[in-house]
Write a structure and sequence with these properties.
The complex is a heterodimer of chains A (112) and B (110).
Chain A lengths: L4 E3 L2 E4 L5 E6 L6 E7 L6 E7 L2 E5 L6 E5 L5 E5 L8 E8 L7 E2 L3 E5 L1
Parallel strand pairs in A: 2-11
Antiparallel strand pairs in A: 1-3, 3-8, 4-5, 4-9, 5-6, 7-8, 9-10, 9-11
Chain B lengths: L2 E5 L2 E5 L4 E8 L5 E7 L4 E7 L6 E3 L2 E6 L4 E6 L8 E8 L6 E2 L3 E6 L1
Classes of the chains: A mainly beta (112), B mainly beta (110).
């Protein structure tokens, strides 16, 4: 049973650049959420996708956008990168509106 | 504003000790409280609690929720070095997101 997978594992970008992170949900799951985790902090909710639509959004600027594909995989795009965007980006999947979310290993983004 | 506070921020114990982690919350429309263990990157699911006073157990780990006093406890008995991790508490209200606390870092020394 495949768990949540994310790519790439690590990424280094410079300020002003754009980045795309990818996530494949756990087998049988149709809902994907994205979280940003800064060092020493808990994950912060960015948004959730269900049926290829953004269902809910957290307090993140429009520079953060996403997409969900028909196979339920998802992308997170961040434009005009800032130093403060350096963090671990976690993807979590669930089935429908089930409470328990299962997390992937994350993508470590470093912005120089 | 909804919030969840975990305490202590960190602790160091020796193998065999018992650890008690606290999670208090202030949230409107509470639906569930979840505990995760984060060792390197991926938080791994431990427990979900929705009903007050019912203990959930898995091996040496157990957790209980008090909806009247708005807190939850995670206990780890007979700790092992493999229990060293950050333990995250999160709640879900009637929307779809999980709101996390900052976590408690547990270090178990041999």
């Amino acid at each position: 049973d495949a768990g949540v997978t994310q790519s790439p594992t690590h990424l280094i970008k410079t300020r002003g650049q754009q980045v795309t992170l990818r996530c494949s949900p756990k087998s049988g799951h149709d809902t994907v959420s994205w979280y940003q985790q800064a060092l020493g902090q808990g994950p912060q909710f960015i948004f959730q996708y269900y049926e290829e639509e953004e269902r809910q959004r957290g307090n993140f600027p429009d520079r953060f956008s996403g997409h969900q594909f028909p196979n339920y995989s998802s992308e997170l795009n961040v434009n005009a990168l800032l130093l403060g965007d350096s963090a671990l980006y976690l993807c979590a999947s669930t089935l429908g509106s089930t409470d328990t979310q299962y997390f992937g290993p994350g993508t470590r983004l470093t912005v120089l | 504003e909804d919030k969840v506070v975990q305490s202590p921020l960190s602790l160091v114990v020796h193998e065999g000790d018992t650890v008690t982690l606290n999670c208090s919350y202030e949230v409107t429309n509470f639906r569930s409280l979840l505990w995760y263990k984060q060792e390197k990157k991926a938080p791994t699911f431990l427990f979900m609690l929705t009903s007050s006073g019912i203990e959930k157990k898995s091996g040496r780990l157990s957790s209980i929720l008090d909806k009247k006093e708005l807190f939850s406890i995670l206990n780890i008995t007979a700790t092992q070095t493999g229990d060293s991790a950050v333990y995250l508490c999160a709640f879900r209200s009637n929307d779809y997101k999980l709101s996390f606390g900052a976590g408690t870092t547990v270090t178990v020394r041999a």
